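Dig into what follows:

_____
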Amino acid sequence: MSSPDPQVRAARNLADPSPESKPTKNSSRSRGPVVAVTGAASGVGELLTAHLAASDAIKQVIAIDERRGEVSEATWHILDVRDPAIAEKLRGADVVVHMALDLDLETDAAARTAYNVRGTQTVLTAAAAVGVHRVVLCTSAMVYGAHADNDIPLSEDAELRATAEATGVGDLLEVERLGRRAPRAHPGLNVTVVRPTVLVGGTDTALTRYFESPRLLVVAGSRPAWQFCHVDDLVTALEYAALEKIEGEFAVGCDGWLEQEEVEELSGVRRMELPSAVALGAAARLHRIGLTPSPAGDLAYTMHPWVVSVSRLHDAGWRPRWTNEEVLAALLEEVEGRHTLAGRRLGRKDATAAGAAGATVALLGTAALVRRARKARRRF
C-alpha cells in the first residue's frame, strides 16, 4: 500500500543486524494464530506488524519484506515477495496478510503492475503450497468505481464497476481477480478482501493531494461525496480479518460521509469550479506530456460518489475510532505546507503565487506548463 510515515508503537531493536531473527517465545501466547505479514517494514504493513506483535490474541508474527523493519517482536525474513522461496518462509503460518503492494504515484506504471500482480500470484500460490488456510488481501473501495448513478452508500456486494484508468486501480482489480480464483485452484485456501475508503494517515495518493491544492477543484454538475478511513481503523479491521472474526469481501471506513459543501466548510478551502470537458481535458493532457503523475481517471473519484456501507464489519462487532470530520482534520494538518496543482507538487515560490492569486492564476499556470512542454518538445 501507499506508505505512511512510520508510527510504530512496538519496542525497537535496531542493533540486530541479522537478516532473519526469531524473538523469544512468549509462553502466554500458546493459543491464537501465527500471522505472516508481507510488506512489513513500511507503511500500513509496518503498523499492522507492530499492532499484531503487541496483541495477546496472536501467537506469532512472521514479517516479510525486502529490508528488516523495526518491530523486534516479529520473526523477520528478508526477500522479495515475487521470489518463490517465500513459500518456506510462510511455512507454519495460519494466516497471511498481503500488504506488499506498490501504489506510489511516482512509480512507473508498468513496473508497478508487474510487481503487484506477480507478487500477489506468488504469495497466493506459496501460501496454498505450505498449508496456509487464509490469505487477506488489502485493495481499496475504489474498485467499486466512481459513477454518477452510484447508490449512497453502495452495498458491499455491489458490482465492481471501476476501470483501469485511475492510478493503480487496474492492479487492484487484478489482485481481486486472483483472490477470487485462488480458492478454486487451491481447495482449502480462503481469501478475505479488505477495501478501505479514502485512506489517510501518512499516505500520499491522488486523493490526499486533492487537499493540497490552493482551491478544491469541483467539476460543474458533479456530486462528490467523501468517506475517509484512518490507517488506525484499517489496522484494526485487518486484525479482525487475521483473527477470522470476519471473512469474504468487506469495506472499511468511517460511518457515513461528507458532502462537498461540508468538506469546504470544514476545511475553509474554497472551490474552483470548472466545466467537465475543461477539467478532464486538461488532466489528460498534463498527464500525457508527463507534467502530472495522476491520469485523468483519478478525477472521477473527486466527481462522483463511491461511498460504501461498512455493515459487515459492524455485524462482526468492529467500530471505527475515527469520524469523517476527525480524519479530514488530521489530513489537513498533515498536508499543511504542501502545495499541489493538478496533482503536481509545487515549489514554495510557485505555491505562494498560486495561493495568493487564486484560481485564475492556477489555471494560467497550468496552461503555461502545457505551453512550455510543447515548446520543449518542438525543439527536439
Q: What stands out?
A: The longest helix spans residues 109-129.
